[in-house]
């Protein structure tokens, strides 16, 4: 399982020959100006919630790639009504896709489309493929349901928001690692704009002090899980 960071909360995940894109927000992110949007491969597009900074480039990429959009019922129906392929899910539900199993799990946040239309309830994803298990938290506060995930899954990596203000920050992300029983974290949803700028050196040091690992990828950078 290979993960590429495209800035903000956008991830590319390669599982064998399947390409998964999560929360595509690239064209509106000045820090991701080096990313070739039209070169990104996508067989599936996973969407955690409907805020603009998570869906801005969904239509552009889905139109080119014919990707299947996977999200909550309201978001998927929205895109199906526009002519795109979709697989609707809801909290607690799981599905066996050709690349592995996906479970749509709780997140504590809000969800609405840029025009104010209801975007269902926000969520995150647990992806199991082969012997690897990945948790993508989405935009969320720290919450006790993470303890359930820690009890039910042996997580290899947790992708957690660390920018604070709109989501949990570094301190709560460290607590989340205890709930999740996962000491390896890929941080995201930080530095894109003023409200969520962080001191990356201090953030890593705080994780290190608790014997945890915080990985922060450069935009366009990748890592193996």
Describe the main β-sheet briefly: 7 strands, mixed
Strand order of the largest sheet: 6-5-4-3-2-1-14
Helix count from the secondary structure assignment: 6
Strands, count: 14
The percent range for strand residues is 25-35%
Please identify the structural class as seen in this structure. alpha/beta
What's the helix-strand series? EEEEHHEHEEEEEHEHEHEE
Radius of gyration over C-alpha positions, nearest whole angstrom: 16 Å
Percent helix range = 10-25%
Distance between the termini: 5 Å
Average pLDDT value?
98
* Stretches with pLDDT under 50, minimum 5 residues: none
Describe, in plain words, how this protein is organized in 3D.
With 225 residues, the protein is of the alpha/beta class. Helices cover 22% and strands 28% of the residues. It contains six helices and 14 strands. The chain has helices spanning 52-55, 58-65, 73-80, 145-152, 170-180, 200-209; strands spanning 2-5, 11-15, 18-22, 44-46, 68-72, 86-89, 94-96, 101-106, 123-129, 132-136, 157-161, 184-188, 213-215, 222-224. The strands form two sheets. The chain has a seven-stranded mixed β-sheet with strand order 6-5-4-3-2-1-14, covered by helices on one side. A seven-stranded mixed β-sheet has the order 7-8-9-10-11-12-13. α4 packs across α5. It is globular, with a radius of gyration of 16 Å. The N and C termini lie close together (5 Å). The model has no long low-confidence stretch (mean pLDDT 98).
What is shown here, in short?
The protein has 225 residues and is α/β, with parallel strands linked by helices. It has six helices and 14 strands.
